[in-house]
């Protein structure tokens, strides 16, 4: 049995980031991972433009203007956004201008309309001493042609999508989604569509792990329930390994008479790296590597639903991030210090993960333990879980009101 940190490092070392990419329409790119660096094809802003509604003037004309001694200028043009100015501003002239409009040649300063007074039809009084170049967004101030805008490995969320659109990028090259085959083992399992008989259990793991994969940016390949039949399990595992980058199976990794997964992995040529981890819940964890293509990693997870999800949250999430092409900072456990609102207990023999809810209260994070039994079979009180409190090995209690390390889910 190895430590949690050892297991984490072994798993990360087994994973190689995907190199396959695809070009997709920008409208379909939300949540995808950028495969190539994006450099600017334009200056941002594209031209000097106004940050305010007001008047474009020469600073030299109005540098001595005040509310008591305003300077009057002739308004020679009106420039709305999207309009190309038609004339150069000369001394003694101004142009009416609107937010986002191009600053005309000859003007270098914008005076807000609140500090002006229009007189007659074509004249304006400047009633303030402006600062030179005030309210002018200068061409290239945000980015210039050739500047890097987005690095490879960037997740494309709304801001990044907006940047790509603004650069005129209609298609974007992204890493393909990781493919994850999922199978559940056990004669006792039935689908949610079937009527339960005595001794049977609904296979919730298939759905939970598919949701986990989707949330992590992957494509789940749901292979259903495989009975405790060695030949059928061998065939299903072989098919899964041939069709995916990762394989998740639940059940069959403990020490029961029908737990065949580890033996079959060895028969299929898998290099078994992990057999059990000093973690609670989720001690029975089998991890193997198959040298097919870029390499397939097999995760034999426990059958208990909480154990399966904790194993995914603690070990697989970082591996998925690395596989998908995210930067190294995203491979590590996302953990913070929080104040526990209840006493936390463990037996001290294994690193223990207790599920609950994290909330920000008066500027400090507080962790509240989920109500009810913290049994690895108790799926019900996982609802609403957004964090796991970590009780280290050799620690048997953490008192309410003290700090605890918490993994954010």
Explain this structure.
The chain has 409 residues and is an alpha/beta fold. Helices cover 19% and strands 32% of the residues. The protein has helices at 4-14, 59-62, 158-166, 205-215, 230-243, 261-267, 305-324; strands spanning 21-25, 38-39, 49-50, 54-57, 71-79, 93-97, 109-112, 116-119, 123-126, 136-137, 148-150, 171-175, 179-185, 189-190, 201-202, 219-226, 246-250, 271-276, 279-280, 284-290, 296-301, 335-340, 344-345, 351-361, 364-369, 387-391, 397-398, 403-408. Helix 4 (205-215) packs parallel to helix 7. It is elongated.
Give a quick set of tags describing it.
409 residues; Molybdenum Cofactor Biosythetic Enzyme, Chain A; Molybdopterin biosynthesis moea protein, domain 2; Molybdopterin biosynthesis moeA protein, domain 3; 7 helices
Question: TL;DR?
Answer:
This protein has 409 residues and is of the alpha/beta class. It has helices spanning 4-14, 59-62, 158-166, 205-215, 230-243, 261-267, 305-324; strands spanning 21-25, 38-39, 49-50, 54-57, 71-79, 93-97, 109-112, 116-119, 123-126, 136-137, 148-150, 171-175, 179-185, 189-190, 201-202, 219-226, 246-250, 271-276, 279-280, 284-290, 296-301, 335-340, 344-345, 351-361, 364-369, 387-391, 397-398, 403-408.
């Amino acid at each position: 049995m190895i430590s949690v940190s050892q297991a984490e490092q072994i798993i990360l070392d087994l994973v190689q980031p995907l190199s396959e990419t695809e070009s997709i329409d920008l409208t379909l790119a939300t949540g995808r991972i950028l495969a190539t660096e994006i450099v600017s094809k334009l200056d941002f802003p594209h031209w000097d433009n106004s940050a305010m509604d007001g008047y474009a003037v020469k600073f030299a004309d109005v540098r001595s203007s005040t509310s008591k001694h305003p300077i009057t200028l002739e308004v020679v043009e009106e420039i709305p956004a999207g309009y190309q100015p038609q004339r150069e501003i000369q001394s003694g002239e101004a142009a009416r201008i609107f937010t986002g409009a191009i600053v005309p040649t000859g003007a270098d300063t914008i005076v807000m309309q609140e500090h002006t007074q229009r007189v007659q039809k074509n004249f304006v009084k400047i009633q303030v001493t402006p600062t030179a170049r005030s309210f002018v967004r200068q061409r290239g101030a945000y980015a210039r042609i050739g500047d890097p805008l987005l690095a490879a490995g960037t997740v494309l969320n709304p801001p990044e999508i907006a940047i790509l659109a603004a650069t005129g990028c209609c298609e974007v090259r992204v890493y393909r989604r990781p493919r994850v085959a999922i199978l559940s083992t056990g004669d006792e399992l039935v689908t949610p569509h079937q009527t339960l008989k005595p001794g049977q259990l609904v296979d919730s793991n298939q759905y939970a792990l598919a949701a986990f994969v989707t949330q992590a940016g992957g494509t789940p390949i749901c292979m259903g329930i495989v009975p405790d039949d060695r030949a059928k399990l061998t065939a299903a595992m072989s098919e899964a390994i041939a069709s995916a980058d990762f394989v998740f199976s639940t059940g069959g990794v403990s020490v029961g008479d029908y737990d065949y997964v580890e033996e079959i992995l060895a028969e299929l040529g898998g290099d078994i790296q992990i057999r059990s981890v000093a973690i609670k819940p989720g001690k029975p964890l089998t991890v193997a590597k198959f040298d097919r293509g870029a390499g397939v990693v097999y995760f034999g997870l426990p059958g208990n639903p909480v154990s399966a999800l904790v194993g995914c949250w603690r070990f697989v999430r970082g591996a998925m991030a690395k596989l998908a092409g995210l930067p190294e900072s995203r491979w590590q456990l996302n953990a913070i210090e929080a104040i526990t609102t209840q006493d936390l207990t463990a037996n001290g023999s294994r690193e223990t993960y207790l599920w609950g809810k994290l909330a920000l209260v008066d500027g400090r994070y507080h962790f509240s333990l989920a109500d009810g039994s913290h049994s690895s079979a108790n799926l019900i009180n996982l609802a609403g879980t957004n964090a796991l409190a970590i009780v280290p090995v050799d620690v048997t209690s953490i008192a309410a009101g003290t700090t605890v390390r918490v993994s954010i889910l």
